[in-house]
Amino acid sequence: MEARQRNRTQAFATGVMLALLAGAAAGWLARPLVSNARPKLEPPPARYANLKNPYSLTDEAALAEGEKIYNRYCWLCHGATGNGVGPGMADIVPPPTDFTDKDRVSRMNDGYWFWRVKEGFPEDLTRLMPAWGKVLTDDQIWKVITYEMTFAQKAESQRK
Considering its fold, how many domains does the chain have in total? Predict the structure, then answer.
């Protein structure tokens, strides 16, 4: 049963990735390229607004699990270093979120971040962020968010 669920999850994730790439190939790249596109961060729906991440950036177990999840589902778009330039996504407008951008990350409160990972951007078809809430549990979403938060810290320490 567990192997069956894992196979369905993998098939879903593969389908999402193929759909993303098909969308890009179908004309997304024909639009003007804007490398610094910074969409406004609209407030999350009320049910997400006051959510708080239960994990800290020092929780090694959460970070390790978050890294595994990121490497399985997120790196293709957001890149291995979290800079929003994953394979084949460099020219997507607007680009995937750059988790190394400390200013951007600081504007994304826990509720906003959770909302976007869970529900994606269904109201904006120009955004390729899928809804991961049917693939990942809430706990897994929090762990991957915790891991994603480390990219800004790593980038900042490398600049010094």
Answer: 1
Each residue of 83-141: pLDDT tens digit? Answer: 999 987 767 778 889 999 999 899 999 999 999 999 998 766 666 788 999 999 999 99
Residues ≥6 apart with Cβ < 8 Å to 54: 142
Q: CA 55 to CA 150: how far, in whole Å?
A: 12
CA angle in degrees (0–180, nearest 5) for 118-154-99: 30
- Contact indicator for 121, 94 with CB cutoff of 8 Å: no
Q: Write the CB contacts of 35 (distance below 8 Å, at least 6 apart in sequence).
A: 95
Please give the structure tokens belonging to residue 27: 């004309």
Domain that holds residue 143: 2-159
119: left (phi over 0), alpha (psi -120 to 50) or beta: alpha
DSSP assignment of 77-129: HH-TTSSS--TTTTT-SSPPP-TT-HHHHHH--HHHHHHHHHH--TT-TT---
pTM (predicted TM-score): 0.73
CA–CA gap between residue 150 and residue 128 (Å, rounded): 23
